[in-house]
Write a structure and sequence with these properties.
The chain has 360 residues and is mainly alpha-helical. Helices cover 42% and strands 7% of the residues.
């Protein structure tokens, strides 16, 4: 076997894992409370933690996606074996149901099981890859129906729609509109089956392959050339989850569009962009193979929640192939550099005749 390269007295393996630890520490610091409540005797004080004002503000795009606040009420929280609290049990499976039933679960939850409205669930709440895909499919379908309801003036937004007194009637109207909407469907839907067809059937009938235009924000450098980044910009060293978001959303705080459009001439650290492109392209290929999307352009058109779930599906598949039944790294813990080096290691194994060519 080839030995590790040595850089500054440390192996590349050590450097990659050190970077992973730095990413983990940064995430830990970002989540420290801004204030601390202290009570002594009968007196209390609210003390500024100090770190919030002193540390530099990180880009919103580089930060992990914050969990939405779940509604208060009769909804349970379940403690998983890792100690984390989630709105569903650890072994819970996302249900296969009619589209109508999913519509009601989306806004009302499952009261018999004390589960919150499904619209508040995230990919991190599901451990089963098949359940993650089912939730992704359901979200795509429900989003189309919600958009139709808003366009009809039924409600101003999704939150307002959740308070509607007759959601079943709203669903019926929107399903009828969708079934007669040629630009939304790639195959016909029977309007008479509005209450019986599954959300999987509706998803299968929806148009895929929505495209978006290239990002056109440009910066003029000192030599007069136009670029997609400010002069001297360096691609951030971050984890895979944050990079995936920036790959398709960009860095809004810096005025930079989706990183997938960047060229090596747009950044100072060209090698990091090369590594990120290899890693992200691999995950895109997995998402396409799973049938989540048909092309990279499809990912650009997804909502933030859909984009996150598509990433988790692809990353889960990667870790399953790499680690088997063992629990692999999480996308929040694995740096882009480490993922790239993992791909290179697999490539060397294939070249030596000792491994699978999947993801290469």
């Amino acid at each position: 076997m080839a030995s590790n390269h040595i850089v500054g007295g440390h192996s590349v393996y050590d450097v990659a894992h050190l970077q992973d630890h730095l990413v983990w520490i940064q995430n830990l610091i970002e989540n420290l409370p801004r204030t601390i409540d202290i009570t002594v005797g009968d007196k209390s004080a609210n003390v500024d933690g100090g770190h919030a004002a002193s540390r530099p503000k990180s880009s919103a795009a580089a930060a992990s996606i914050a969990r939405r606040v779940l509604p208060r009420g009769a909804f349970a929280q379940f403690e998983w074996t890792c100690g984390d609290q989630h709105p569903v049990p650890e072994d819970w499976k996302f249900p296969q149901s009619t589209c109508l039933a999913m519509w009601e679960l989306w806004f009302h939850g499952d009261l018999s099981s004390q589960l919150c409205p499904f619209r508040h669930l995230l990919g991190a709440d599901l451990t089963d890859p098949n359940s993650k895909r089912s939730m992704y499919v359901a979200r795509r379908v429900i989003k189309v129906l919600i958009d139709l309801a808003i366009s009809k003036g039924v409600a101003a937004n999704e939150d307002a729609l959740a308070d509607h007194s007759d959601l079943r009637s709203v669903y019926h109207q929107c399903f009828e509109t969708m079934s007669q909407h040629p630009t939304l469907l790639s195959k016909p839907l029977d309007v008479d089956k509005w209450s019986t067809c599954s959300y999987m059937t509706v998803y299968d009938a929806l148009q895929k392959g929505r495209r978006t235009n290239l990002h056109e924000l440009t910066f003029t450098w000192a030599d007069g050339t136009l670029h997609l980044t400010p002069e001297g910009y360096r691609l951030p060293a971050t984890n895979c989850s944050a990079m995936w978001q920036m790959w398709f959303r960009g860095d809004a705080a810096a005025g930079i569009g989706p990183f997938r459009y960047l060229k090596e001439s747009d950044v100072d650290n060209r090698q990091d962009l090369y590594r990120a492109r290899k890693a992200m392209n691999m995950l895109v290929e997995v998402a396409i193979e799973q049938g989540v999307v048909t092309s990279q352009d499809d990912l650009m058109a997804l909502s933030d929640e859909e984009l996150e779930t598509a990433f988790e599906l692809a990353f889960d598949d990667y870790t399953l192939q790499t680690h088997g039944d063992d629990k692999g790294p999480t996308p929040q813990d694995m740096s882009v550099r480490r993922l790239y080096e993992s791909l290179q290691k697999r490539k060397r194994l294939v070249d030596d005749g000792g491994g699978s060519s999947v993801f290469l």
